[in-house]
Design a protein that fits this description.
- This protein is an alpha+beta fold.
- Helix content is 14%, strand content 32%.
- It contains three helices and 28 strands.
- A hairpin with a 5-residue loop joins strand 27 and strand 28.
- The N and C termini lie far apart (69 Å).
C-alpha cells in the first residue's frame, strides 16, 4: 500500500512540474509574440495617423504633476494666469522625479550611450565640430532638449521641455546660467519650445502648453509676456515657433491654428496671415518659423503639407518647396529651420533623422545625419540655430526614435520601420 502511495505522490509531483514548465514556456512565447511596449504603442499610433493623413495637434503633450524648480527665479513678480494648471498638459517634472531620472537615466543606461549628447554643433557642410549636454537635471544637462537660439555674442540658449528651464552656454558648450521653474506665470514654464533673440539680446520663448510668449533679458530676468489660450487676435493654441526680424518684430507660428501672427517687441499685435489648407500661403500643422537677413519669413508646415513656405514681412506669399517622403527635398515632419547670411536654408527633417540644406530658392544642396547615438547622428533632432561664424547648433531630444525602439548601447532597431 505504501509503494502505491509513494508512486502516486511521485506521479502527481511530476505532473505539477510539467504543468509549471509548460506554463513558463507558454508565457515566454506569448511575451515574445505579443510583447506590448507603451512607447511603441504611442509611436506606432502616431505613425499610423501620419500615414492616414489625420491632422494631429497634441502629439508632444504628456501629463505630469507637481512642482519642479531649478535655476534662478525671475526678478519681476506678479502672475498673468491664462489657464488652470489642473487642466493643462505639460512635460515638466518635479524634484523627486528629476532625482530619480537623473539616477535611472544616467548616460550609461539602456536608453543612452556613454557618448550621447543633446547638443550637436556642425559646420555648414554638416561636418561635426563639437557636442555637449548629457542626460540629467543638473547644469548643462537635459531631459528633453528642444528649442535653440544664438545671441549676438554667439551664446547659445536651449529650452528643456521636461526640466522646464532655459539654459545658456557659450559657443563651446560651457554652461553660463539657467532660469525657469514649472508653473504658470512670469518665468515659469509648462513646455517651453522654440526661442528667438532680438537686437538687444533679449530672449523670446514660446510656451506651448500655457499659450504665451515670454520675454527675458540675456541673463534670464523676466521682462514681459503676452498671449493666452484662444483663437482671437493675440491668442494662441499651442504656439511652437517664434522668430524676430531686423526691426525686432516678433513672429509666432501656432501649431493648432493655421496662421502666423506678427507683434512688436512688447507684444502689441500688428497683423496675421494664413488659413487651413494645402494651397499657397495655407498651413495644416506648423512647427517652426525663422526670418532671414532680408526679413523674409520661413515657416515649416510639418504634417500633410510637409513643406517650407516663404513670405515677406507683410505676409505676402513668395514661394514654397517640399513634399512628404524620404528623398532629397522631401520631409517627414520638418521642424527647426534657420537661414545663413548667404540665404542658404537649413531644415531639421525630424522623422527622417537628418538636416537638409537648400539654396535660397529651395534647391537641394546637401544633407547629413542618420539614426544612431554617435554625435554625428540623431535620435530625434528638433531645432536648429546658427551663429555669426556660420556654425550650426542642432538639438537632439534624445530618447528613442519615433519609428524604431532604438537602444544606444546595443544598436538594436528595425530599419524596415524607418
Amino acid at each position: 500500500m505504501n509503494k502505491i502511495l509513494n508512486l502516486s505522490f511521485v506521479s502527481v509531483s511530476l505532473l505539477i512540474v510539467c504543468l509549471i514548465s509548460t506554463n513558463l514556456i507558454f508565457n515566454k512565447i506569448y511575451a515574445e509574440i505579443f510583447e506590448f511596449n507603451e512607447k511603441d504603442y504611442y509611436t506606432s499610433s502616431d505613425s499610423d495617423s501620419l500615414n492616414s493623413g489625420e491632422k494631429q495637434t497634441n502629439s508632444e503633450d504628456t501629463s505630469m504633476e507637481d512642482d519642479y524648480s531649478s535655476g534662478n527665479e525671475p526678478t519681476n513678480s506678479g502672475e498673468k494666469q491664462t489657464n488652470s494648471e489642473d487642466t493643462v498638459k505639460e512635460n515638466c517634472i518635479n524634484n523627486q522625479e528629476a532625482s530619480v531620472l537623473q539616477t535611472q537615466t544616467s548616460p550609461d543606461s539602456d536608453t543612452y550611450s556613454n557618448n550621447f549628447h543633446f547638443i550637436k554643433k556642425f559646420d555648414r557642410e554638416g561636418n561635426l565640430v563639437d557636442s555637449w549636454g548629457m542626460v540629467g537635471s543638473g547644469n548643462g544637462q537635459f531631459l528633453h532638449a528642444h528649442g535653440i537660439t544664438v545671441d549676438l555674442q554667439d551664446n547659445v540658449y536651449v529650452s528643456d521641455g521636461e526640466n522646464c528651464n532655459i539654459q545658456k552656454f557659450d559657443s563651446n558648450g560651457n554652461f553660463i546660467t539657467k532660469w525657469g521653474t514649472k508653473g504658470i506665470g512670469p518665468g515659469k514654464f509648462l513646455q517651453p519650445e522654440s526661442m528667438a533673440v532680438d537686437s538687444l539680446n533679449n530672449v523670446y520663448v514660446a510656451e506651448y502648453s500655457d499659450n504665451n510668449i515670454q520675454k527675458f533679458d540675456s541673463n534670464g530676468n523676466f521682462l514681459t509676456m503676452w498671449g493666452q489660450g484662444g483663437e482671437d487676435i493675440g491668442e494662441f493654441k499651442k504656439p511652437w515657433g517664434v522668430a524676430v526680424d531686423s526691426k525686432d518684430n516678433v513672429y509666432v507660428s501656432d501649431q493648432a491654428l493655421p496662421r502666423v501672427q506678427k507683434f512688436d517687441s512688447e507684444g502689441n499685435f500688428i497683423k496675421m496671415w494664413g488659413k487651413e489648407g494645402s494651397k499657397k500661403g495655407q498651413f495644416v500643422h506648423q512647427h517652426d518659423i525663422t526670418v532671414d537677413p532680408n526679413d523674409y519669413v520661413y515657416v515649416t508646415d510639418g504634417r500633410q503639407n510637409s513643406r517650407v513656405s516663404v513670405f515677406d514681412d507683410q505676409g505676402n506669399f513668395i514661394k514654397m518647396w517640399g513634399s512628404e517622403g524620404k528623398g532629397e527635398g522631401q520631409f517627414i515632419e520638418d521642424h527647426g529651420i534657420v537661414v545663413d547670411k548667404e540665404g542658404n536654408v537649413y531644415v531639421v527633417d525630424t522623422r527622417n533623422v537628418r538636416v537638409q540644406k537648400f539654396d535660397s530658392n529651395g534647391n537641394f544642396i546637401t544633407t547629413w545625419g542618420s539614426l544612431g547615438c554617435r554625435d554625428d547622428q540623431f535620435l530625434i533632432p528638433h531645432d536648429i540655430a546658427i551663429d555669426s561664424k556660420g556654425y550650426l547648433y542642432v538639438t537632439d531630444s534624445g530618447k528613442s526614435h519615433f519609428r524604431a525602439n532604438y537602444d544606444c548601447n546595443q544598436g538594436n532597431y528595425n530599419e524596415n520601420k524607418l
